[in-house]
Amino acid sequence: MRDVIKLAYKSVWMLLFLSKSFLTTRIFRLKLWLNHVDYGKNVTSANSITRLLISKSATGVKIGNAVAFNNYDGPSWNCKCCLQVKEGGKIIIGDNSGFNGVYIYCSLAVTIGEWVKIGGGTMIIDTDFHPLDFENRRCGFEGMNSKPVVIEDDVFVGTHCIICKGVRIGKRSIVAAGSVVVKDIPNGEVWGGNPAKFIRKIVNKYE
């Protein structure tokens, strides 16, 4: 009897989840259209609606096919995806990539390849936000430094990482959870730490 109740509970929970995700995805796609985002087929926003903060003066946002944005708003973890694009900024996301509660801030350019998976709480930022010179900070944002971020195909980024400006992460590479990436990562390597450093090569059975 207990097993039957557990199965019924799981079935009801899954039905509610799918129903909510169906609705949030439809609303998300409407928001994409209203923000002039070029998006492909089967783009989803599960569990909650991904936030869009896109300047009318942004260069553009392009999202490929079957890109999944997963959001969490439960009592144990509140972490939602957000795409923030400032004036002149441009975001490109390739097919079949997935994001769990990821925040992307783009003032210049953020390019993400195909089959990229990025873990919950990770931030991708292409700017310093504030000038490094203290006198410029007193005056505002003059002298703020921005550089493009590129994440190539099949990269996996663990939870709660920070990908900083000017970084290129090569194909098939892995970034360990909690890492701060401040310099380029070559293809097929595992990096981790703060700042992220080389750990080992990835052996690719297809090469």
From TrEMBL:
Gene3D superfamilies, per database record: Hexapeptide repeat proteins (2.160.10.10)
Annotated InterPro entries: Hexapep, Hexapeptide_acetyltransf, Trimer_LpxA-like_sf
A GO MF term: acyltransferase activity
Organism from which the protein derives: Bacteroides xylanisolvens
Descriptive protein name: Acyltransferase
Keyword Lipid biosynthesis set for record: no
Swiss-Prot/TrEMBL keywords: Acyltransferase, Transferase
Top-rank taxon, per record: Bacteria
UniProt KW Transferase keyword: yes
Pfam family, one: Hexapep_2
